[in-house]
TrEMBL record:
GO terms for molecular function: L-leucine binding; oxidoreductase activity, acting on peroxide as acceptor. It holds the Pfam family PA26. This is SESN2 protein. Transmembrane segments: none annotated. InterPro entries: Sestrin (IPR006730). The gene is Sesn2_1. GO terms for cellular component: nucleus. PANTHER family: P53 REGULATED PA26 NUCLEAR PROTEIN SESTRIN (PTHR12474), SESTRIN-2 (PTHR12474:SF2). GO terms for biological process: cellular response to L-leucine; cellular response to leucine starvation; negative regulation of TORC1 signaling; positive regulation of macroautophagy; regulation of response to reactive oxygen species.
Length: 90
């Protein structure tokens, strides 16, 4: 059976640590919705693959992993310095 943040993680965290679920969910939603469809000077770029990699990396930082996601994509798209930055701000 698949477990997801939305269906299972959020309610479990809130049961164990009240209010923490909301804080984590806000962080996750900012990452997931962060787009201007622009990379550097290029407009109209589909950034969904990059955003998905960042989304999954942020979840991974907080101990949440998805069985159906290829984490090789994270290593392919996110350079080491970006990972360090994400860990710092998350």
């Amino acid at each position: 059976q698949d477990y997801t943040w939305e269906d299972h993680g959020y309610s479990l965290i809130n049961r164990l640590y009240p209010d923490v679920g909301q804080l984590l969910d806000e962080k996750f939603q900012v990452v997931y919705n962060l787009t201007y469809n622009t990379i550097a000077m290029h407009c109209g770029v589909d950034t969904s693959v990059l955003r998905r990699a960042i989304w999954n990396y942020v979840h991974c930082v907080f101990g949440i992993r998805y069985d159906d996601y290829d984490y090789g994509e994270v290593n392919q798209l996110l350079e080491r310095n970006l990972k360090i930055y994400i860990k710092t701000v998350a």
